[in-house]
Design goal:
The complex is a heterodimer of chains A (131) and B (381). Chain A is an alpha/beta fold. Chain A is built from five helices and five strands. Chain B is built from eleven helices and 13 strands.
């Protein structure tokens, strides 16, 4: 079965970018434009990995991480923050909130997939080459 | 109080006119005794010093001579009402009182008044204090608060600016990259070339954003910097390792020169590293041939003991007209050289150096190279 990655990102342009990159590497992309929608999708579809923006209206990325880590079914899913927040102390807060990884925007498109595949079990990685 | 030690009768004797003068002289404030008609009856030396008149000029004159002309008339009224209902108090503190020197110069004063009944008449004892310095201190304290608030606002602004600029930059550089990666099909040479230009410009923009952000690092606030025992040699060699690749890519010879042993100093490791990255980075950037050398040494003794980090290059040098402005924010020497830069690096470096109790100096010959010297106190700030 194709590996599913849920992307929670409120800016359509950035969502589209992640979709283009991930699909090119053979991943199935599920998308949500805010934290609550993201959680709902996660509970229904049980993705293999979640990429999540931090600053969003409504439920923000930190809130998403809290909910996911408190959910009996979702709590072990790899969760990676993709954010334009880069100030001192943010990284620590990201890990403290339950994220497994922290990738800053602007992302480096060529390194992005290898960066996040570190958080996927080997059998779920597609390939590091675009299809 | 006085009465308890010497008895009421003695106190009367003690306050003979002559002793009263001695008493006034012993007081640190300027003291005036004025009669109910506003005539100066007695003064001390502080009044002479403060206002520039001699005692003989003061005694017998109207006290209003010591006030700005505009206040004199009003003061006569104040004085008459005071004599009718005298009590010890500070003079109107709700507006700023001014004294006038013989020279005409005005200065802020604080005055306290005490009525002294003498028979059926009343004398008024006033203590006058020049508060120029105190007001100046208060003004500076207020200004500091305003500065600090500004800094906090600037930090907030830079914080959101960084986030707001990075967000769209993500899609700009990201899609340029996906196109260049061929994710949307093959590209011809011209398309590739243009996309690379987009990518490079996006990188430049990111460098600008990062440098703006470094203005708001918590260390930029002296209260938050961590001063600890560090090894200057270690810091320099870490920075050199970081820069070595870039230097060798340009074919420059790159070396670190200093004693084998650690060079200990009390300073901030992060701030020192940031300064060295800027200095060494500039040296590599502005040198196309030859070498870049980083030299560390101790100099001075005792309280003046310092550690110097010297970054020497054989690059394009600094034009004479740029010397004075080199450490200004957003100033760039050699702007015409098509080197990317923001004009923030040296500004920040100098700010950080000053916060660490040191400074950066430079010497340069155009076309031959530059030498930047960072001196930091060995004992810290």
């Amino acid at each position: 079965m194709t590996t599913q990655i849920l992307v929670i990102e409120d800016l359509p342009a950035n969502l589209k970018l992640l979709r283009v990159i991930l699909e090119a590497f053979g991943y199935k992309v599920l998308a949500a434009e805010d934290g609550y929608a993201g959680l709902q999708t996660a509970r229904e579809a049980r993705p293999d990995l979640v990429l999540c923006d931090l600053l969003m209206d409504g439920l923000d990325g930190f809130g998403v991480a809290r909910e996911i880590r408190g959910d009996t079914i979702l709590k072990r899913v790899p969760l990676v923050a993709v954010t334009a927040l880069v100030t001192d102390g943010v990284e620590q807060k990201v890990f403290d909130s339950g994220f497994d990884g922290y990738i800053t925007k602007p992302i480096e498109a060529r390194k992005f997939v290898p960066q996040l595949e570190k958080f996927l079990p080997e059998n779920l990685r597609t390939s590091t080459l675009p299809h | 109080m006085l009465k308890r030690f010497i008895g009421a009768g003695d106190a009367q004797k003690l306050l003979s006119a002559q002793n009263l003068e001695l008493f006034l002289e012993s007081v640190p404030d300027a003291m005036l005794i004025v009669d109910s008609g506003g005539q100066i009856a007695m003064t001390n030396g502080r009044v002479e010093e403060l206002f520039g008149y001699s005692k003989s000029e003061l005694v017998g004159s109207q006290v209003e001579m010591l006030m700005p002309a505009a206040h004199r008339k009003r003061h006569v009224g104040f004085r008459e009402r005071y004599v009718e209902a005298p009590r010890a108090r500070n003079m109107a503190s709700n507006y700023e009182l001014q004294g006038v020197r013989r020279s005409g110069e005005q200065f802020p004063v604080e005055i306290s008044l005490s009525p002294v009944p003498v028979g059926s008449d009343i004398l008024i004892l006033s203590a006058i204090r020049d508060v120029t310095e105190r007001l100046e201190r208060e003004r500076r304290a207020r200004a500091n608060e305003v500065e600090l608030e500004k800094l906090v606002n600037v930090n907030r602004f830079l914080f959101s600016l960084s986030h707001e600029l990075r967000t769209p930059l993500n899609a700009i550089s990201g899609f340029a990259a996906t196109l260049l990666m061929g994710l949307s099909g093959p590209l011809n040479d011209e398309q590739q070339d243009h996309l690379k230009t987009i990518e490079q410009s996006a990188e430049h923009l990111l460098a600008l954003i990062n440098q703006l952000l470094s203005l708001m690092q918590p260390e930029f606030n002296s209260e938050n910097m961590i001063i600890e025992k560090i090894d200057g040699r270690d810091a320099a060699s870490a920075v050199c390792k970081m820069m070595e690749r870039e230097a060798s890519a340009k074919g420059l010879s790159f070396k670190l020169d200093g004693p084998e042993k650690p060079i200990k100093l009390k300073s901030s490791h992060r701030m020192l590293t940031q300064i060295l990255i800027n200095l060494v980075g500039n040296a590599v950037k502005y040198t196309d041939r030859g070498d870049v050398t980083v030299r560390i040494r101790r100099c001075g003794r005792g309280d003046g003991a310092a550690v110097q980090f010297e970054v020497t290059d054989t690059g394009i040098g600094i034009p004479d007209e740029a010397r004075e402005r080199l450490f200004e924010m957003f100033y760039r020497a050699n702007r015409d050289q098509e080197k990317e830069g923001t004009g923030i690096g040296l500004f920040i470096s100098q700010q950080l150096a000053v916060r660490l109790g040191g400074r950066i100096e430079f010497s340069s010959a155009q076309g031959q190279g530059s030498k930047f010297t960072l001196s930091l106190p060995q004992k810290g700030v």
